[in-house]
């Protein structure tokens, strides 16, 4: 049976990620380097405080100056609009986690995909490396069972744009009742667990 376009992209994404998983793709950033964490409420730290949000914890773990560019309620379109002003701060790395609100609001997948693609391309045009952070596919069934998994568009976009992808981290955290403040947000401990997962991934990729 011939592959559909989505099946083909998913296969390519899996093969690309597998091929790249052993080789670091980043350049080590010194302590004090400016890093932009860009996203929605999961970046802002909803359900806890900005002091316990993942950007603040990541700053403690790495010694970087991590800018919290998270805004609760932001969609992929909102982040794309905010990006130019944030890039004037000249970050040396952008951590992009967006899309959850698109899924909740049933934004057309093609629109979400295009916005994330355009955001990644704008970051690349500014000669700044990016890491894409997968967010859970927030369906009614997933929220009912509490067992979340990443939306497949992240693996496809990471392969298409040749950027490292942090997969499963938010899905794992938000599938654990002890780490949540509500159905779709972490608590302070959840944000710390996520930041530790991210720091480990960034080490593997050569940024830390």
Question: How would you sum up this structure in a few lines?
Answer:
The protein has 208 residues and is of the alpha/beta class.
- Report the biggest beta sheet as strand number plus sense, adding barrel if it closes: 5 strands, parallel
Instruction: Give the strand order, joined by hyphens, for the main sheet.
Output: 2-1-3-4-5
Task: Using the alpha-carbon principal axes, give the shape.
Answer: globular
Q: Which radius of gyration do the C-alpha atoms yield?
A: 16 Å
* SSE order, one letter for each helix or strand: HEHHEHEHHEHHEHH
State the low-pLDDT regions, or none.
none
Query: Helicity range of the residues?
Result: 40-55%
Q: Number of helical runs?
A: 10
Question: In angstroms, what separates the terminal alpha carbons?
Answer: 44 Å
What's the rounded overall pLDDT mean? Answer: 92
- β-strand percent reads 5-15%
* Number of beta strands: 5
Structural topology:
Blueprint: H1 5-20, E1 34-39, H2 41-44, H3 54-62, E2 65-70, H4 76-87, E3 93-97, H5 100-104, H6 109-125, E4 130-133, H7 140-145, H8 153-161, E5 165-166, H9 169-173, H10 188-204
Parallel strand pairs: 1-2, 1-3, 3-4, 4-5
Helix pairs in contact: 1-8, 3-10, 4-6
């Amino acid at each position: 049976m011939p592959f559909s376009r989505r099946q083909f992209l998913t296969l390519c994404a899996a093969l690309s990620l597998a091929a790249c998983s052993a080789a670091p793709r980043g350049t080590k950033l010194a302590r004090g380097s400016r890093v932009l964490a860009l996203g929605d409420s999961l970046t802002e730290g909803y359900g806890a405080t900005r002091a316990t949000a993942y950007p603040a914890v990541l700053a403690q773990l790495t010694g970087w100056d991590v800018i919290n560019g998270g805004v609760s309620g932001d969609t992929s379109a909102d982040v794309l609009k905010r990006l130019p002003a944030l890039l004037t701060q000249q970050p040396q790395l952008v951590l992009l986690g967006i899309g959850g609100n698109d899924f909740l609001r049933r934004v057309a997948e093609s629109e979400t995909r295009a916005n994330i693609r355009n955001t990644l391309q704008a970051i690349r045009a500014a000669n700044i490396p990016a890491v894409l952070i997968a967010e859970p596919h927030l369906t009614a069934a997933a929220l009912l069972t509490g067992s979340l998994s990443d939306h497949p568009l992240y693996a496809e976009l990471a392969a298409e744009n040749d950027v490292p992808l942090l997969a499963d981290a938010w899905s794992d955290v938000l599938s654990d009742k002890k780490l949540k403040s509500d159905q779709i947000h972490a608590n302070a401990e959840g944000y710390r667990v996520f930041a530790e997962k991210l720091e480990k991934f960034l080490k593997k990729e050569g940024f830390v």
